[in-house]
Amino acid sequence: MALDMKTLPIERKPLHVPPLDEIAEVLNNGLKQHFQEVQVEVVDCPNLTQMPFTLANGGLNGNTHLMDVGGPPYLIPLVQYDKVYNLCDIPELMKMKSAFIIGAGAGPHPYAKTNCECIMNINIENGVVDQQTRIVKVKDRTPLQEQLPTTETRFALLGNLFICEGKPGKVLQVHVKKRIGTEDFIGSIRTVLADHYGSKILGLGGTFLLKEGKANQHVMPNFVKTPINSEEEINQWLEFFEMSAPLIANGTLVTGDYDLDLRVQHFHSFSHHGEGGHYHIDTTPETVEYLGYFNTAQDIYRVDKPVHTHNVGRD
Ligand SMILES: [Zn+2]
Description:
The protein is mainly β. It is built from 5 helices and 19 strands. The protein has helices at residues 20-30, 90-93, 109-112, 185-197, 231-237; strands at residues 10-14, 35-44, 65-70, 84-86, 98-106, 117-125, 128-131, 134-139, 142-147, 154-164, 170-179, 203-212, 214-219, 239-244, 247-254, 265-270, 277-282, 289-296, 299-303. The strands form 2 sheets. Strands 1, 3, 4, 5, 6, 7, 8, 9, 10 and 19 form a 10-stranded mixed sheet that branches. Strands 2-11-18-12-15-16-17-13-14 form a 9-stranded antiparallel sheet. The longest helix has 13 residues, at 185-197. Keywords: Hydrolase, Metal-binding, Nucleus, Zinc.
């Protein structure tokens, strides 16, 4: 059972879409404050179905959108069990014959029998599903990653999605080494773009590889019965792990909020060695290396925005 997405409140806002060459130049200059080695180029997207990315489709082009579904208010202070959504609703909702969807959110608790992280990675083409989405749950203080079956296309509570047709084409390739700033990889990109573009709001989606180093990541444990009311309480509840490269992280970022109560950045990673979770920041700034592929989204869809909101749990 899942909520029917087309019956939920939806708002849409256009995003500012500067040429990729311009964004590459802005990032090449700005990221030097954050990383010692910076190379940002506009390239033909490599085939992302190949190792190490193993995404459900090869490219990040064609009908690009961001979607922000639900939000932390459905998780805390107490979980709302009915907030379950289906990725298979998205093609019809967006009037797309095929949709390649990657992103970060909460996994389908009715399937997992527990709260869990979700790393969305799915291609839906004329109703045919290629499901490469992983979930990560925590058991006895150990994160456990598993791939969802084709028949399980739901997620819960919140999701930050990049949606496109998966077509080949030009993308931003962001390659950086050795972190010298205090912000994480995505936060660094977001800050540089926000500083440059100001009130013009951009949205990017895509995937990045933590090629070298380790990262601090959390995995949500099962729901609690006592309300969580502060950032401190949520950090006591979440389980944090230091996870090792190579990690593949999918998600979105936006440089502004549009008063839509948006999650401004959200990336979840999976791996081929069993680790996965919500990316916070690398713990090895001296040796860290990131390689990311991103594209701009034309607009953002805000689906099922919580009526009563708060600022807890946005990190
Ligand atoms: Zn997350």
